[in-house]
Amino acid sequence: MKAEHHLHIHYTIYQNLTELPEKAAHLMKEAIAARQKAYAPYSHFKVGAAVLLKNGHIFIGSNQENAAYPSGLCAERVAIYQASTQYPDEEIEMIAISGTAEIPTAHPVSPCGSCRQSLSEYETKQQKLIPVYFMGAEGNIIQTDSIKDLLPFLFDGSLM
Ligand code: THU
After folding, report:
1. Is the pLDDT of residue 157 over 90?
2. Is 101's C-beta closer than 6 angstroms to any atom of ligand 1?
3. Among 50, 53, 101, 151, which residue's CB has the most CB atoms within a 10 Å radius?
4. How far, in Å, from the CA of 4 to the mean position of ligand 1?
5. Which of 53, 54, 51, 52 is nearest to 62 (CA)?
6. The predicted structure's pLDDT at residue 53
7. Domains of the chain from N-terminus onward
8. With contact defined as beta carbons under 8 Å apart, do 14 and 140 qualify?
9. Quick one: pLDDT at residue 14?
10. Is residue 76 lining ligand 1, measured as CB closer than 6 Å?
């Protein structure tokens, strides 16, 4: 017999940076600063990401584009790969992302599918949820408690 299911995700919308918990606000400011230094001469869409580790270290990333388009990399992966390179065994506490086109957007910019998959790898690895905060250039910030909330039915390699 077929069975229909529903998936529910829980997320929080904060009105602005001042409403965020202190650590998250600080991390988002790092993401915003990283965004401003993005190398995005082709899309003119700049993204910044910041990863906070349990040991207190913060790793930032910005999107790095390339004339051969697919050779570029998103901000989130630049940040998380750097974090995991420097501290492969350290727990990731949270991630903040800010993205915008040249005209500042207030629309929260969520990580792309490839980044969700990449980020989820570390959540699976550490077996502890990683909250994700994301925003545009200004305005609301959305927070999910887990990367998995953004990627239902993710591929986690457990079947390999
Ligand atoms: N981009 C990111 O850095 N992160 C995302 O999650 C979405 C897209 C970048 C890639 C490219 O440089 C530009 O934004 C436009 O797609």
Report:
1. no
2. no
3. 50
4. 34
5. 51
6. 98
7. 19-159 (3.40.140.10)
8. yes
9. 98
10. yes
pTM for this model (two decimals): 0.97
Percentage above 70 pLDDT, the chain: 100
Query: Which tokens hold the place of 70?
Result: 């697919």
Rounded CA-CA distance 127/72 in Å is: 29
Q: pLDDT band at 129, cuts 50/70/90?
A: very high
Tell me the C-alpha to C-alpha distance, in Å, between residue 25 and each of 4, 15, 50, 70, 83. Answer: 39, 12, 11, 32, 19
pLDDT of residue 159 exceeding 90, the answer is no
Give the atom of ligand 1 at the shortest distance from the alpha carbon of 78: 3
Q: Where are the extended beta strands (E) located within the chain?
A: 11-14, 46-53, 58-62, 92-100, 132-135, 141-144
